[in-house]
Structure formats: structure tokens, C-alpha cells
Amino acid sequence: MPSKGVLILYSNSAQLDYYKLSKLCSRLAEQYLNVPCTIQYIEPEQTNFRTFRYPENKLEKTEWNNIGRFSAYDLSPYDETILLDSDYIVQSNTLANYFGCDHDFLCHNKSWDVTGNNVFRHDQYMTQNKFDMRWATVIYFKKTEKAKQIFKTWRSVYEHYDYYSKLFGFRRTPFRNDFAMSIAHQICNGYKNSYTFNHDLPALSSSDSVLNYNKGKWLLKYQYKNTHNVMRYKGDLHVMNKHSLLEIADKL
Prior knowledge:
Elements: E1 4-10, H1 18-33, E2 37-41, E3 49-54, E4 58-63, H2 72-75, E5 80-84, E6 88-89, E7 105-108, E8 111-113, E9 135-142, H3 145-159, H4 161-168, H5 177-188, E10 201-204, E11 209-214, E12 217-224, E13 227-233, E14 237-239, H6 242-247
Parallel strand pairs: 1-2, 1-5, 8-10, 10-14
Antiparallel strand pairs: 3-4, 5-9, 6-14, 7-9, 11-12, 12-13
Helix pairs in contact: 3-5
């Protein structure tokens, strides 16, 4: 019987405790998906920085050492793997339904703003010429040659990122796994419609925040135009405001 599990990769950061996030992500993934989880530290091949916009329009230049996710194929001990970002918090068994599917590699092609503000509408395409974007936040893959080729191409795009940034027309810095994986995914599928998850990626932007968590429900704060609002939400969530997630981590 094929082995199944979750893989979480992390690197250190000056601003954020990614190991604590990984432990939280791992515990909840095991609980809801009923499979083992492996946390793997990866030494970043280069320092990466990204400026995030937090509530009240606060900008923070964050050490964002996300390079190395293309190593997941080699690092995973499982025949079938769900690769998760450490800020993706599993709160349902939705992802477990993909184990045993007919596909070698799946990712999200749309991110859904759970507040209803639709802040990710500009991320449907990676470039102005409407090259479809994929999200590297959650990936399902099997130990097959097809999946292996996608990860190999992903690494190649990273190694020649300056070339691809000029070819496709996006900024050379910071390096984004979403962009590199999008290109690799399309190349390996002949630029045809490639397979993706049949549900959108549930997400909360960095400019919104988690206030609390109680009895399976999130309490979220978000801004709509000039008003601040609070809402409840239940389900999986990609929390891009990692500071707020760390503040309530003990309640999850």
C-alpha cells in the first residue's frame, strides 16, 4: 500500500518563528488528515526578502527564506505527499480526499479571499500578458517521473530566474516559488490546461489578521475601504499575516 503523508519545509527568519509555525501546522495536519507529517529544515541557498503590508498599512521588510521547495520531491519519505507552507492551517479533511487520486501533481490556480474583499484578484495571472499563475502554498504529488520532472524544472527556473523574469516580464526580486512553480508546471504540461485542485486556496491577506480561535472557528479582522470589520470563519486557512497567527498559536 502506498505511503501517504504531509511534508513541511522551513528555514530560519530574523522576524518570524517558522519552526513554531511548522510545529503547529504539522500537529493540525496530522489531526485532520490522519496521516504522519515530516518537518524538514532546509538551509536557504540565498537570503530572500519581501516587503509585506500589514494592518494599518504598516510595511515590513521580512527575511523570507522560502527558497528550496523544489527539493520536496527528494526530501519526502512518502509515495504520496501533501506539501504545505507552514502558515497553512488545516481545519478539515479536504486535502485527504486527494490521496489516491489519478493525478501525479496538483496545486491551486486560484486563491480565495475568505473576507470577501477579493484582494487576490490581481494574482490570477503572473504577468500583464496573462500568463496563468499557480500557488505553491499547497501541493499534492506522487513519486512519479512526471512529478519529478516538474520539481526538476522548478529548480532550473530558480537557477535561471533572471532569464525567466525577462522572458515572462516580472520582477527579478524577490524570488517567488509561485512564479517558478507556475512556469515549471506549464512547461511540463506543454502550456496546456494542467490539472489543479478542484477547490480554491482559502486565504487571509497579510493586511488582515487573526484575532482569536475558539471551538473550531476563526475570528478574523479585516478592512473594507475605511471601515474595520470582524467576521467568523470555519475551515482551512492560509494565514499570510504570520505575526497574528503566532499570537494565537497556543489556542489552535
